[in-house]
Every structure is written in C-alpha cells, then in structure tokens.
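Project standup — Tuesday

K.O.: blocked on the structure for the chain from last sprint. Re-posting the sequence here as requested.
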Amino acid sequence: MLKVTLKKVLLLSAVFLTFSQSVLAEEVHNQEGKVVYQIHYDYEPIYTLLKVNQKEFDQYRKKGLSIAEMAKKQGVSRRDLEGYFVS
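H.V.: unblocked you, prediction finished:
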C-alpha cells in the first residue's frame, strides 16, 4: 500500500512541477526586455583551447572575430573546436 501511495505522490508531484514550470516560462517570456535564456561560457578552457591569453582573446573580440575565426587563426582544427562545445 505504501508503494502505491508513494508512486501516486511522485506522479502528482512530477505533473505539478511540469505545469508550474511551463506557466512560469510563459509569464517570463511575456515580459518585455527580460532575458529568458542565457549562455555562459567558462572562458579559461576556451583560452587554453585557442592557445591564447585573456588579453589576446579580448583583442580578437574587439576586431570582431568569432571563436571559430580565432581558432582558425590559431591553427586549432574545426573538429577540436566543435568537440569542445559539444562536450
């Protein structure tokens, strides 16, 4: 009996959480100027991958280069770059 009750409670909790998160996402989405999703990069591993320091990275960014363009300039293969972001 306890297992059945526990299963029902877990199922109801999962359903409640699913719907409450959907409503919250819609409410936030409807607010103008509010960022809903944001990507945050840990730059230290990117510097290591690109074989640059922060100053060099910032100089490339000021020139308008993308990370892919930086990798090409630094001799980092596209496969290695894609592998980093996929993992």
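K.O.: great, moving the ticket to review. The first helix runs from residue 2 to 29. The two ends are 44 Å apart (CA to CA).
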